[in-house]
Amino acid sequence: MTDPTTIAVYNAKFDDYVALENGERRNPSLDRFVEMLPKGAHVLDLGCGPGNTAAFLQKAGFTVDAVDASVGMVKVAAEKYGIPVRHATFDDISAQAQYDGIWANFSLLHAPKSKMPTHLAALHMALKPDGVFHIGMKLGTGEHRDKLDRFYAYYSQTELEGLLTDAGFHTLSATFGNGTGLDGSRSDWIVITAHA
After folding, report:
1. What is the DSSP letter of 139?
2. Burial code of 142-151, b = ≥16 C-beta within 10 A, e = fewer?
3. Is 149 left (phi over 0), alpha (psi -120 to 50) or beta?
4. Partners of 85 in beta bridges
């Protein structure tokens, strides 16, 4: 994520976001992701937010690299959980065959559609062969800003799976749902699990 307005919203509202994250029930997609990882796996939490998931993964015995474009989120994650977290954008991912798994849970939806092929190619390169990739996105079409002025790119299942295939991923499963976000509106979403 590089959109300054979106980053500013997260920096200003990180307390509200932390409360929203803490109020969510356990994520079944996270359980599935963990089950697919080898013991002692090296995981990238891309857009880690306040660090809940990164802390959970670290407690489960994994080595976690947590990154977020919001300085506010990075500060919360480091102070609350004591996890190693780095201030970085999607453009800063340059690892090669380093990760057993990448968790990109509703983070890449802030990337412009024009940059998505580049981001997915970089993430594919960052994964080890047969590494696990989790991506959560909002369903829909086009690019829009929400009530808080955050930038969003929306995808259909076919569109997203096509981009993943073009980047070298193999889709394993797709899950659908609906939830309320930080701006108070409800949105349909898709979560895809794929292999490198």
Report:
1. B
2. eeeebebebb
3. left
4. 66
**64 close to 54: Cβ distance less than 8 angstroms:** yes
Strand 127-138, strand 186-195: pairing: antiparallel
- Whole-prediction pTM value? 0.93
- Cα–Cα distance measured from residue 42 to residue 48, given in angstroms and rounded to the nearest whole number: 15
The helix/strand/coil state of 82 is coil
Residue 29, classified by CB atoms within 10 Å of its CB into exposed (0-12), middle (13-18) or buried (19+), is middle
Residue given tokens 């292999």 in the structure block: 195
Q: How far apart are CA 111 and CA 29, in angstroms?
A: 22
Decide: 169 and 120 in contact? Cβ < 8 Å.
yes
Which residue type occupies 161? E
pLDDT in tens, the chain (196 residues): 678 888 888 877 666 666 656 544 468 899 999 999 999 999 999 999 889 999 999 999 999 999 999 998 899 889 988 888 999 999 999 999 999 999 999 999 999 999 999 999 999 999 999 999 999 999 999 999 999 999 999 999 999 999 999 999 999 999 999 988 777 889 999 999 999 9
Backbone angles phi, psi at 45, to 5 degrees: -100, 100
